Amino acid sequence: MGITERREREREVVRRKVLDAARELFRTEGYEHVTMRRIAEAIEYSPTTIYSHFEDKDDLVMACCEEDFSRLLAALQTQAPPADPVEWVRQLGLAYASFGRHYPNHYRFMFMTPAKFEHPHGPASPGEQSFGLLRTAVERAITSGRFRAGDANTVAQILWSVVHGAVALLITLQPELWPCAPAAPDLVEQAIDNAIRGLRSAPDGGPR
Fold it and tell me: In the chain, what are the domain boundaries?
C-alpha cells in the first residue's frame, strides 16, 4: 500500500469515528447541546481535525443522514418488487422494521432525534427515494383496485406511521415495560397486516 492510499484510509477511519460519535451524541445529549468541540473530546481529537472533514455541525449532521438513509434505501431494495403491490407494501414494511431493529442507534438518530436541518432534502436524496418506494407501491395498489381510492402520499404516510410506531417502541421500551409484557413476537407483522387490512378495497377487508 502506497503512502497516498494509507493516508486516505487513515482519513476515512477518522471520518468514521467522527460520524459515529456525532450520531450517538446527537441522540443522547440532543442536537442543540452538542458542539464540534464536544464531538472532538469524545473521540480524543482536536476540533481542527473535525473541521478538516466537515465544514460545520450542519454539514456533519447532513453527512450522518445521507449515510443512514442510503443504508435504509439499500435495505428496502434488497428484494425485487413482487407483482402484487399489496405484497410489495408488506415487503417494504418488514424491510423497514428489520432495518430499525438491526440499527437502533441509527434509527433513533434518523427519526427520533430533534435536529435542525437547514439543507433541504432533494427529490434524489436517499430519504426521499426510500419514501418514494412506499408511495409507488401504494399508488399501484390504489390504481389496481387493491386499496381504496385515496391520496397516495397520505396513505403512504399512514403506513409509515404505523410501522414507525411499532419499531420505535420495540427499540425503546425494555421487554418488561410493555403492557402485558413482553411484546408479541410478531408485533410488526400484525401491525403491518392490520394497517393493510384497513386500506383494502375488499368488502370484508380481509386478504384475497
Answer: 1-54, 66-199
Angle at 42 between CA 38 and CA 48, to 5 degrees: 60
Size (the chain), residues = 208
Fold of 1-54: Arc Repressor Mutant, subunit A (1.10.10)
d(CA 190, CA 184): 9
Fold of 66-199: Tetracycline Repressor; domain 2 (1.10.357)
pLDDT tens digits for range 175-195: 999 999 999 999 999 999 999
Q: How far apart are CA 126 and CA 73, in angstroms?
A: 6
C-alpha of 61 from chain center: 14
Q: Which three cell numbers stand for residue 156?
A: 403512504
CB 21 within 8 A of CB 39: yes
